[in-house]
Design goal:
Elements lengths: L5 E6 L6 H12 L7 E6 L5 H8 L5 E4 L16 H6 L4 E4 L2 H7 L3 H14 L2 E6 L3 H5 L3 H8 L14 E4 L13 H19 L1 H6 L1 E5 L7 H5 L6 E4 L6 H12 L9
Parallel strand pairs: 1-2, 1-8, 2-3, 3-4, 4-5, 5-6, 6-7, 7-8
The protein binds phosphoenolpyruvate (PEP).
Length: about 260
């Protein structure tokens, strides 16, 4: 029996209108889901309401792709944690590499976002990952450690914290990390969590892999004991692919964790 429930998070980015997102959500609801798996869907903000209605009573979690650093006020265009909570959201992505790259957001921003989520009882999916240049320079461990500095201000982990290891070079490229690479980094992240919050927290925190998870790559990745599921972009937009990912995530792992 696995120590942690597996979770797939569908990140739909800026790729579906509210009506198309609702139709896709209904298609995903219709897929038989193994009882031991969790599924969450993160549509764009304008689609939250309609996707939330499609997910009502299904056990599938409504997630959001971002949250603003402030609680409330004159911040045109931004969305607060309390708004997300009121919309029925339970999980929120923080630190996605596209926010780092296109919006210049950094660890102090992510720390504030996670504080806002904690205030509202929402769980963060905190995303970390190195670029190709950083990996090639042998800096992966240092980069991940510096990204985890967003947790420095927390004496206990944000409630429901989930980590997502998303190597930037694997996102949307069709070139996922190998299962061994993912398992190695996840084990390192778990050790960092243990150093910060203790082994109990480290052992119970889910660490997802993200970056070109597909029906082809998922069986190998999800065979790893260290990989507690996936944060999935492109493949999560195709119902038959999601069905394949759920099946892969439900399969038993290869056994003992890698050393
Ligand atoms: C992502 O953007 O979080 C992601 C993992 O995308 P993709 O699955 O398309 O690589």
């Amino acid at each position: 029996m696995r120590a942690r429930r597996r979770l797939l998070v569908a990140n739909w980015k800026m790729s579906r209108t509210p009506s198309a997102a609702a139709a896709l959500a209904r298609a995903l609801v219709a897929i038989p889901r193994p009882a031991q798996l969790d599924l969450a869907i993160a549509p764009s903000f304008p689609a939250l309401d309609r996707v939330g209605a499609a997910l009502a009573g299904t056990g599938i979690t409504l997630a959001a792709q971002d949250v603003y650093v402030e609680k409330e006020g004159a911040f045109t265009g931004e969305v607060s944690a309390s708004m997300l909570k009121d919309a029925g959201v339970a999980l929120v992505l923080v630190g996605h590499s596209e926010r780092r790259l296109f919006r210049g957001e950094r660890e102090p921003d992510f720390a504030r976002k996670m504080e806002r989520l904690v205030e509202q009882g929402l769980a963060p999916v905190y995303c970390v990952g190195e670029t190709r240049a950083e990996r090639d320079a042998g800096r992966t461990a240092d980069v991940l450690r510096s990204q985890l500095a967003a947790l420095d201000g927390f004496s206990a982990p944000p409630s429901g914290l989930i980590l997502a290891y998303e190597p930037v070079w694997a996102i949307g490229t069709g070139l996922p990390a190998t299962p061994a690479m993912a398992a190695e980094v996840h084990a390192r992240l778990r050790a960092e969590l243990a150093a910060r919050f203790g082994t109990g927290v480290a052992g119970s925190t889910r660490i997802l892999y993200g970056g070109s998870v597909s029906p082809v790559s998922a069986p190998g990745l999800f065979a790893e004991e260290e990989v507690d599921g996936g944060l999935v972009g492109n493949a999560s937009l195709v119902a038959s692919d999601v069905a394949a990912l759920l099946a892969a995530a439900a399969a038993p792992t290869t056994g003992a964790a890698r050393a």
